[in-house]
UniProtKB/TrEMBL annotation, chain B:
Transmembrane helix among keywords: yes
Pfam families from the UniProt entry: ATP-synt_B (PF00430)
Subunit structure: F-type ATPases have 2 components, F(1) - the catalytic core - and F(0) - the membrane proton channel. F(1) has five subunits: alpha(3), beta(3), gamma(1), delta(1), epsilon(1). F(0) has three main subunits: a(1), b(2) and c(10-14). The alpha and beta chains form an alternating ring which encloses part of the gamma chain. F(1) is attached to F(0) by a central stalk formed by the gamma and epsilon chains, while a peripheral stalk is formed by the delta and b chains.
InterPro entries with a match to the protein in the record: ATP_synth_B-like_membr_sf, ATP_synth_b/b'su_bac/chlpt, ATP_synth_F0_bsu_bac, ATP_synthase_B_chain
GO molecular function per UniProt: proton-transporting ATP synthase activity, rotational mechanism; proton-transporting ATPase activity, rotational mechanism
Keyword tags: ATP synthesis, Cell membrane, CF(0), Coiled coil, Hydrogen ion transport, Ion transport, Membrane, Transmembrane, Transmembrane helix, Transport
Cellular compartments per GO CC: plasma membrane; proton-transporting ATP synthase complex
Name under which the protein is recorded: ATP synthase subunit b
Taxonomic classification: Bacteria, Bacillati, Actinomycetota, Actinomycetes, Kitasatosporales
Residues in coiled coil: 60-98
Length: 273, 184
């Protein structure tokens, strides 16, 4: 992290339109943070996204701890809410895609993944935090890596070396002459592209969402001068609309992430196709 | 250089290259969540969900058992009721029969008593008749003696007169007897 983080909140500047001041557009610098402590040049530092990641973990664990520590057969309100979330992932995602018999083993992983990703996304619209942790590529990559390792090892375990190779390359004799090409593409697509897209899909969505929110928020402030005030109102309405939209996207992306995870696991467990 | 490139150059960062410390913290954060959920909290709730499922199934079973019992009890009550009705009908029948028998008996008794009374009446009449006949016989004897005396007294004028007298006497006698019969 050699960059000089120029992270400033939009409202910390006195920059307005018609005041000989350029628009402080959000950019990559918006995703860089001054370490809270440590040195950004070394690899020993602690910054806001890290804090949010750990805080998010604590919130998830705290929530489920409160709900499931001493669960009752006749549930209380909190337990009922937590059960609904748990049941949604278990039945709605894992059982749907992997199946009840094979999938039961992976329920804890998928449930953890879903709530973890969702929480990290949610930070985006939590006041003061207001930063989606998953818009830093390291976090999605970490999760995608876990899934990738699990998926590849499961494939080898289930099908043996040759079987796994066939699985990765989509080996199908009926393809005839196209087979070598198809196998090359499939191998590339499965082993290299898949984990990358898995992580980037989540990262890019949150990155773009955060950038949009920043754009409209900064614009609302920037336009607050002279005739610009009228436009600032429009921009501010957009902030609210985009916040609501982000709320939806955050849950959707968490859902998509675990859905893909399940479909990879299912692919590894499936018989030769 | 355009401003954007300047910024990018200044930052020197590719957003797709993960910074190692953040990767480590991200994995750590996830492992915390996964560990606690997988080892402690989800098994907890799974156990309870299982218990709940069993409780619901147990409840259904209980309800089934109660229903079966209720049905058997109802059956029993119905049987008892039918039996009671049957018994009542039987008792009624018996009472009717007994009543009939009693009436029959009374009737027979009445008949018997009537016959007794009638027989006693007959016997009485017979006795009366016998005593009357014997009294009559005495009277007839006396009258005959009286008649004989008269006949002797008239000195037997002629046979015809004599026989007329006798006839008349007998007629009188007969008249008296028939009158007595009629009055009786």
């Amino acid at each position: 992290m050699s960059a000089d983080p120029t992270q400033v909140l939009a409202f910390e500047t006195d920059c307005h339109i018609f005041a000989d001041c350029g628009f402080p557009a959000p950019g990559l610098h918006s995703f860089l943070f001054k370490p809270i402590f440590g040195n950004a040049d070394s690899n020993l530092y602690f910054n806001k996204p890290m804090l949010l990641a750990l805080l998010g973990s604590i919130i998830i664990v705290g929530f489920f701890w409160a709900a499931f520590r001493k669960p009752k057969v006749v549930p209380g309100k909190l337990q009922m809410v937590a059960e609904a979330g748990y049941d949604f992932v278990r039945r709605g995602v894992v059982y749907e895609i992997i199946g009840k018999k094979e999938g039961e083993k992976y329920v804890p992983l998928i449930v953890s993944l879903f709530f973890f990703v969702w929480m990290m996304n949610l930070w985006s619209i939590v006041p003061v935090a207001q930063f989606p942790v998953t818009s830093i590529i390291a976090y999605p990559i970490g999760l995608a890596l876990i899934v990738y390792v699990l998926w590849v090892s499961l494939t080898f375990k289930r099908h043996g070396f040759v079987g796994a190779f066939k699985n990765f390359t989509g080996y199908d004799k009926s393809l005839g002459a196209v087979l070598p090409m198809s196998m090359t593409i499939e191998l590339f697509s499965n082993l290299l592209v898949r984990p990358f897209t898995h992580a980037v899909r989540l990262f890019a969505n949150m990155f773009a969402g955060h950038t949009l929110l920043l754009l409209f928020t900064i614009a609302s402030w920037y336009l607050l001068n002279g005739i610009g005030i009228a436009y600032a109102g429009v921009s501010f309405v957009m902030v609210i609309v985009m916040t609501a939209f982000e709320l939806f996207i955050q849950a959707l992306q968490a859902y998509v992430f675990v859905l893909l995870t399940c479909s990879y696991i299912q692919g590894a467990l499936a018989e030769q196709h | 250089m355009s401003p954007l490139l300047t910024i990018a150059a200044a930052e020197g960062e590719n957003p797709l290259v993960p910074p190692i410390p953040e990767l480590v913290i991200g994995l750590l954060a996830f492992v915390i969540v996964f560990g606690l959920l997988a080892k402690k909290l989800l098994p907890n709730i799974n156990k309870v969900l299982e218990e709940r499922r069993e409780a619901i199934e147990g409840g259904i079973e209980k309800a089934d058992a109660a229903k079966t019992e209720a049905e058997s009890v109802l059956e029993q009550y119905k049987a008892q009721l039918a039996e009671a009705r049957h018994e009542a009908a039987r008792l009624r029948q018996e009472a009717t029969e007994q009543g009939t028998a009693i009436i029959q008996e009374m009737r027979a008794e009445g008949q018997r008593q009537r016959e007794e009374i009638v027989a006693a009446g007959h016997a009485q009449i017979e006795a009366d008749r016998k005593s009357a006949a014997s009294a009559l016989r005495q009277d007839v004897g006396k009258l005959a003696t009286e008649l004989a005396g008269k006949l002797v007294g008239e000195s037997l004028e002629d046979h015809a007169r004599q026989s007329r007298t006798i006839d008349r006497f007998l007629d009188e006698l007969e008249d008296g007897a028939s009158k007595a019969e009629a009055t009786r």
